[in-house]
Amino acid sequence: MNTSILQQNIQEFITQNSGVSITKLALQKNPFPEVEWISILNQIEAKSKAKEKLPTWFSTENIIYPSKISVEQTSSEKTATYKASLISGESLIDLTGGFGVDDYYFSKKFKVVAHCEINEDLSAIVKHNFEQLQVDNCTFYADDSSTILNNLEQKWDWIYIDPSRRNDAKGKVFMLKDCLPNVPESLDFYFEKSNSILIKTAPLLDISAGLSELKFVKNIHIIALENEVKELLFEIHNHYSGEITIKTANILKDKTETFEFILGDQLDLPFYHLPQKFLYEPNSAIMKSGGFDEVSTSFQINKLHKHSHLYTSDELIDFPGRAFEIEKVISYSKNDMKTELLNQQANITTRNFPDTVENIRKKWKIKNGGNLYCFFTTDKNDNKIVLICRKITEK
C-alpha cells in the first residue's frame, strides 16, 4: 500500500484534479517528484470513477483507491445498500472482499463482518479506508478464503461470495464452476461453516445454469440500477427444499420498482389482445427474470403475443417499467411506413420482430430521438405491426 499519496498537498491535488482528463494530466510535469506520477494519476482516475458510483468514498478524506478496474468492478453504493437490506444477523464472512463496498453496508446490519481478500495490498487499502469511514466492526484477513474459513473454526450466520471469472474461461458459456472460488465444488465445505450463503454473480449468468449448479436455492434476486441489470444473487439455505422465489428490483433515482413470483408456479394462461389504449414494457430486471406470463396474470393486463413481452390495457396502471399511450397502430407495410414514418424522428424498440433497429432506421430514414416512441413487434394474430406511442411521464 502506497501511503506516500496521503500527504496533504498530494491529497489536495488529487481532489482538485478529479474529473480532469488523465491523458491531459499525464503530459504535465510531476509536481511531487518524490512520488511516482503514475500512482498519483491512478488515484485521480479512480477517484473520478467513484464520484457517482461511490459518493461516500469520494467525499471522505484520505481514501486510498486501488486500480480503476477494482473501482469499476465493485458494487455501487446503491446496489450494496439494497443487497444489505436482504439479509441480517450477528456475523457475516465475505470470502471475496475486494474494495469492500458490500462489507461497508453489511457492517451496518451485522455485529461482526470478516473481509477476506487474497491480495495483501488491496486488503491493507480496505482496512485503511474503513478506518477513515469509521467502521469498527470489520476484521481483515489477507489470505485464501478457504484457509481463513478453516483457521477461524467458527460458524457464521452468513457467507457472502462474489466469485470472479477465471481468465482461461473466456469464450465459454458462463458457469459458476468457471469462477474463483469454485462455489459448486465448495458448497458442502461452506455449509460446514454456515447454513446461509449469498452468492453474487455477473448479470450475464443464465438463471437456469445457476440453478443447475447449485442446491438449496430459496430466493434469486435480480438487481438493476436505472434499468440496467447489475447483479444476480442466489440465496441458499442448507437443506432448503421449498419453492424458489424470483425477486426483481430496479433501483431508480426516486423509487425502487419491485416484482416477484414463484418459479415454475402453475398459472392461468395470460390473455392475448390486440393493442389497446396503453402499452407497457417491463424493466430490465423483469426481462432478465423471464417471468413474462407472471407479469400478465399479476397485473391483470393483456399480452400482445406469446413472444413479444409487451403488454396492453384500456386503463392506465402503475407498472414496473415504461408506460406509453398508443396514438396509432399501423401494419409494417410499405404504404403505412411511407405515410407515417418515412424521414421522421423517433425512438425505436423491436420486440419479437424480424428486423433490427439499425436496419429499420436505414430503410425508412428515421432519425433517432424526439418524443415519438415506435415499437416494432408482432401481434396475437402473427401480423407485423408498429405501435406509435407517446411516453407517459410520472407527475
Automatic annotation (TrEMBL):
Keywords tagged on the record: Methyltransferase, Transferase
Ranges for domain PG-1098 ferredoxin-like: 278-320
Domain THUMP-like per the UniProt entry, residue ranges: 321-391
UniProt cross-references to Gene3D superfamilies, sorted A to Z: Methyltransferase PG1098, N-terminal domain, Vaccinia Virus protein VP39
Entry GO MF terms: methyltransferase activity
Domain of life of the source: Bacteria
SUPFAM superfamilies: S-adenosyl-L-methionine-dependent methyltransferases
InterPro entries named among the record's database cross-references: PG_1098_Fer, SAM-dependent_MTases_sf, Thump-like
GO BP term, example: methylation
The protein's name: SAM-dependent methyltransferase
Naturally occurring in which organism (per UniProt): Flavobacterium pectinovorum
